[in-house]
Every structure is written in C-alpha cells, then in structure tokens.
Amino acid sequence: MGTTERRAREREARRRAILDAARELVRENGFGGTTTRQIAERCELSEATLFFYFSSKDEILISLLGEACDFWANGLDSIIDNQAPPEEKLTAVWHFFGKVQREHPEYVHVSTYLAHPQSTVSVDEAVTADLMSRTGDNFRRLADLVGTLDGVTQPRVTADVLWSSFLGLMVLRQGRANLGAPLHPDDSDLGEALRLLSQGMSGTTP
To answer: Is there a cis peptide before residue 185, judged by omega within 30 degrees of 0?
Structure first.
C-alpha cells in the first residue's frame, strides 16, 4: 500500500470514528445538546484535530444525515421489492418509520436538522449537493411506492404528507417528553394516524 492510499484510509477511518461518536452523542443528548468538544473527547481527539476532518458541527450532523439517508434507502428498497399488495407495503413503510425511531432515534433527530435556519451555511457545497441527491432519491422511492395505491393521483405530494406526518408526530412526542408530559403519540395513536392518512389517500371518509 502506498503512502497516499494509506493516508486516505487513515483519514476515512478517523472521519468514521468522529461520526460514530457524534451518532452516539446525538442519541444520548439530541443534536442541540451535542457539542464538538464532546465529540472530540469521545474520540480522544483535540477539538482542533476534529476540525481538520470536519469544518463545523453542522457538517458533522449533515454527514450523519447522509448516513441516515442510506439507512432509509435500504429499508424502502426492501419494502418496494416485496411482492405484497400496495396497501400492505404502505403499512410496512409506516412500521419501518417507527422501527427507525425505536432503534435509531438519532436518525430521526438529524432528519429534522435541515429545517433549522442557516443549518447548511458552514457545510461544504459538495456535501450539501450529495445530501440533496440522496434525499431526493428517497422521496422518489416513497412517491413510487405510494403511487401504486388506489386513489393516489399526486404521488409526490402524498409522499411529502406521509413523511412529514410521521416526522411531525415524532417532534410532538419528543417535545412532550421534554416537558415531562405523558409520552404520546404511542403505538396505538400511530396506527390511528396511518388509518386516517390511508383514508385520505384513497378518498374515503372516516
């Protein structure tokens, strides 16, 4: 292995370690409660060294969102490839969203990050462009899936409504948790939400 190749691998390994640490901390503290100092300490790096690999906390979180996009993509592809009827695939997508929330809540946290003002100002344009491409691909996956449902005439809008409904419910749930309020929507509430969304897609009334 040449020197250039070795250094490239070492750099990639260090970036991966930083992202692993950031993912753990976001899961523990949320992105608002995660600092670059904490990430550096978790990796046993100085904060100055961390900034050699990432220009800002925003770039770290955006990079994590790219990782989340890959996870969402794999899950959606698995559901799309299944030979189940469209309605069962829709239910499977909703359950997959819930599974991600339970097993990888950090991916849901970072999925809300782009809505923050100035969240991409300090992020390299190439990173932003790559993320735009990956998120677009995922929405096309979801739009193609819901487009097979009876009654759906605008798959892109329907996909937006489905995803934003789930994400909004998770933000609402976390906000209530932060206030010490009862933790809901619970699984039963999420099932009811899917029922209402399905009725809206099919054009039926409750």
So the answer is: yes
Residue located via tokens 């608002």: 32
pTM of the model: 0.83
Q: Measured between alpha carbons, how far is 17 from 52 in angstroms, rounded to an integer?
A: 13
Q: What domains, with CATH codes, occur in the chain?
A: 1-54 (1.10.10.60), 56-202 (1.10.357.10)
- Phi, psi dihedrals of residue 20, rounded to the nearest 5°: -60, -45
Query: How far apart (Å, rounded) are the C-alpha atoms in residues 203 and 80?
Result: 23
Q: Report how far residue 18's alpha carbon sits from residue 20's, in angstroms, rounded to the nearest whole number.
A: 5
**95-109 average pLDDT score:** 89
49 Cα distance to chain centroid: 27
Residue 100 near residue 108 (C-beta atoms within 8 A): yes
Max CA distance (Å), the chain: 66
| The pLDDT of residue 143 | 96
The 10 Å Cβ neighbour count of residue 149 is 17
- SS3 of 51-91: the string is HHHCCCHHHHHHHHHHHHHHHHHHHHHHHHHCCCCHHHHHH
Residue 35 or 117, more confident: 35
At 140-177, the pLDDT tens digits run 999 999 999 988 999 999 999 999 999 999 999 988 98
Q: How does pLDDT run across 78-91, given as a tens digit for each residue? A: 999 998 999 999 99
